[in-house]
Amino acid sequence: SGNYYNQGEIRKKELEQSCCVLGIPASDVTVIDHRDLPDDPAVEWDTQLLATLVLKHIEAKNINLVLTFDAGGVSGHANHISLYSAVRYNVCKLLWVPPWAGCRVLVLESVNLCRKYISFLDVLISCLLPRDALFILTEEETEQAKRAMLCHRSQLLWFRQLYLRFSRYLVVNSLRLL
Question: Which Pfam families does the entry link to (predicted)?
Answer without folding.
Answer: PIG-L
